[in-house]
Design brief:
alpha/beta; TIM Barrel; Double Stranded RNA Binding Domain; eight-stranded parallel barrel; three-stranded antiparallel beta sheet; binds 3-methyl-2-oxobutanoic acid; binds zinc ion
Length: 520
């Protein structure tokens, strides 16, 4: 019989806490909605007590999503559990996820607690959390380096106290599939009450084994897998959701398990996350890498032309990779545009369709052929807008290989024009320096990338700019244009607007600038 495996997505918690992957409130909400669309069972929306921003994102996501469970992480401490519940109380299906380390090294050096104290604390805090919420997950941090006999004792205690899910993570990515399987079987044998609750697995990828270990956990009886989109997470990351899901999907014959995930939403989820964080996946990444379905070698191409199954074990369409279809031209009407957007799987309001149609028309004027991917890029960018404190009015660049580049940038700041001139090493550098002068804050360029959305001389350029402020906070901005200098300028301004948006968030996460025009 095929087992149903619950997907517990921790992109917004374990994933978001990894370097370069931080997201603002709007971006987290957009990502959470996409995860819901993909039919993830549980979304861990954050660690409510860790910061006002995390609290606000757990609360807003809990109040927004209707079709999946929303969890918050909490240490085994009353104040953590109180804060988690404060954020989750309006969720349709809330879950408190409380954790404590159980390995000798963590208990001695990090917690400075004895095993008995860890036992008492766990049981007491699960009982405490149970007063608020029926769905309680207890995690044994560094479980795979813990003593199975001690774990079994504590697990029996927390199940009696009301835990409904027991998670046994490979926190440091140390175990191997066979070892993890044996470990999980042993703990279940020693803790018979586990047969009445959900066994969960949470694997890190330090040895590149996170997905293989998660599959071993399924074999050992786990019915919940914790993972992240694109495998982002602490250090080498967590188990990649798309890899785990497609492994079950493709090898149901031997793995005898499946998930509820709408696999055709996988590519869009991966792209949205990369677009938001500015962290691209490597080209040869399984399932979502640019080359995952590309066949370069002549002998492979020949085989695939004769019969796709010679080298293709999954269909690109099954993960939502669209063909690079020609869509609409500059004479296309709103009706055709609305139909296309719907066909691409977006459920936009009439206002959103109007705004996107205007952007599409602007693009169609500059570009002969507009493809599905162009439209997807426009929509993805639009979905995570922040208030447009600064906007570009116009720019003039003077550049060449025998002169120093000069940029004149004119921007609107809350509707008032400001113009600055700057020289620099090339047109992009000169433009960025002029914007920095207008903003009046020293900003450091941390990353700059440029790629085209589709092929062709008139392709839409997609620029990514990462800047840091004097406190070292990082902000990623995106810009789209058929002119790569304009795309780069838009990306820099977008990063500046995100910085201002985050700085104007009140501690409770409400933005003071509510009346401001929303744009990119
Ligand atoms: O890796 C880990 O052990 C964790 C726990 C908090 C579940 O992220
Ligand atoms: Zn983790």
């Amino acid at each position: 019989m095929t087992k149903m495996i619950k997907i517990f997505d921790t992109t917004l918690r374990d994933g978001e806490q990894s370097p370069g992957c931080s997201m603002n409130l709007k971006e987290k909400i957009e990502m959470a909605k996409q995860l819901e669309r993909m039919k993830v069972d549980i979304i861990e929306a954050g660690f409510a007590i860790s910061s006002p921003g995390d609290f606000m994102s757990v609360k807003t996501i809990a109040e927004t999503l209707k079709d999946c469970t929303v969890a918050s992480l909490a240490r085994t401490a009353e104040k953590d559990i109180d804060r988690a519940w404060e954020a989750l109380s309006n969720a349709v299906s809330p879950k408190i996820h409380t954790f404590i380390a159980t390995s000798p090294i963590h208990m001695e050096y990090k917690l400075m607690m004895t095993p008995d104290e860890v036992y008492e604390r766990s049981v007491a805090m699960v009982k405490y959390a149970k007063k608020y919420c029926s769905d309680i997950e207890w995690s044994a941090e560094d479980a795979t380096r813990s003593d199975p006999v001690f774990l079994a004792r504590i697990i029996e205690g927390v199940i009696k106290a009301g835990a409904t899910t027991i998670n046994l993570p490979d926190t440091v990515g140390y175990t191997t599939p066979d070892e993890y399987y044996d470990f999980l079987m042993k703990v279940q044998e020693l803790a018979p009450s586990m047969s009445n609750i959900t066994l969960s697995s949470h694997c890190h990828n330090d040895l590149g084994l996170a997905v293989a270990n998660s599959l071993a956990a399924v074999k050992a009886g786990a019915t919940q897998i914790e993972c992240t989109v694109n495998g982002i997470g602490e250090r080498a990351g967590n188990a990649a959701m798309e890899e785990f899901v497609m492994a079950l999907h493709t090898r149901k014959d031997i793995l005898k398990a499946e998930t509820r995930i709408v696999t055709t939403e996988i590519a869009r989820s991966s792209n949205l996350l990369s677009r938001i964080t500015g962290v691209k996946v490597q080209p040869n990444k399984a399932i979502v890498g640019e080359n995952a379905f590309a066949h370069e070698a002549g002998i492979h191409q020949h085989g695939v032309l004769q019969n796709k199954e010679t080298y293709e074990i999954m269909k690109p369409e099954s993960v939502g990779l669209s063909q690079n279809n020609l869509v609409l031209g500059k004479h296309s009407g709103k009706h055709a545009f609305r139909d296309k957007v719907k066909q691409l799987g977006y459920d936009l309001s009439e206002d959103d369709v109007d705004r996107m149609f205007a952007k599409f028309k602007e693009l169609a004027d500059k570009k002969k052929q507009v493809y599905d991917r162009d439209i997807e890029a426009l929509i993805a960018k639009d979905s995570v807008q922040v208030p447009k404190t600064y906007s570009l009015q116009n720019f003039v660049i003077n550049s060449g290989n025998t002169i120093t580049s000069t940029a004149v940038i004119r921007m609107l700041h809350d509707g008032k024009p400001i113009e600055k001139v700057s020289r620099g090493e090339g047109p992009i550098n000169a433009s960025f320096k002029a914007i920095e002068k207008i903003v009046g804050t020293p900003l450091k360029l941390e990353d700059y990338q440029l790629q085209s959305v589709t092929e062709g001389n008139d392709a839409l350029g997609d620029a990514l700019v990462k800047i840091s402020d004097p406190e070292g906070n990082l902000y990623a901005g995106r810009g789209l244009s058929t002119d790569v200098i304009e795309a780069s300028i838009h990306a820099y301004i977008n990063a500046v607007n995100k910085m201002i948006y985050e700085k104007t968030l009140k501690p409770n996460g409400v933005n003071k600038e509510t009346d401001k025009e929303i744009s990119n």
